[in-house]
Amino acid sequence: MKKILLLIFISITAFGQDIAQLRKEFIAANQSSKASVAFLESTAKLSDKALHQAYKGAAMVIHAKFAKGVEEKKKWAKQGISLLEEAVKKDAKNIEIRTIRLSIQEQSPKVLKYKEKVEEDREFVSIEVAHLPNGPLKTFVEGYLNQK
């Protein structure tokens, strides 16, 4: 029984560290091509869980910003948006997923036409952040909202 509890604790701790690292890389990825590639590589082998999919999609869209050529940019952006939207469909009430989508939409160029849910996401995130307990997720969400 102790071994099972230890295994569960280790799994939960590892998942939390994994997400904390993804948050840091997500924030840094917009700063340089090198950081976007590092973030893309970090997300490549993540599971199909909704939150992981959201980060994978975000990594692809951010990578598109640094890709060479219009077609390459479109390819990465399209794949990323598709994954991000799939993540939202899987878990529409997840504030972290909605924050990620909000960030990507607000930063996406008009030519992508990926801004239709900005107001909906901003309202959802702004309301739901008040219900989060103090901790890394609340800090992440408030950090994004306060930068605007």
Describe the structure.
It is a single chain. The protein has 148 residues and is mostly helical. It has a single domain (2-147), classed as Serine Threonine Protein Phosphatase 5, Tetratricopeptide repeat (Alpha Horseshoe). The chain is built from seven helices and no strands. The chain has helices at residues 2-29, 33-43, 50-66, 70-90, 95-107, 118-128, 136-147. α5 (95-107) packs parallel to α7. The longest helix is centred in the first third of the chain and has 28 residues, at 2-29. It is globular.
Compute the gyration radius: what is it? 16 Å
Class computed from helices, strands and strand pairing: mainly alpha
The overall strand count is 0
CATH fold-type name: Serine Threonine Protein Phosphatase 5, Tetratricopeptide repeat
Low-confidence stretches: 1-17
Query: Mind telling me which CATH architecture this is?
Result: Alpha Horseshoe
Query: How many separate helices?
Result: 7
Strand content range: under 5%
Helix content range of the residues, please? over 70%
State the distance separating the first and last CA atoms.
48 Å
Shape: globular
For the sheet with most strands, the description reads: none
**Element string (H = helix, E = strand):** HHHHHHH
CATH secondary-structure class: Mainly Alpha
Mean pLDDT: 89
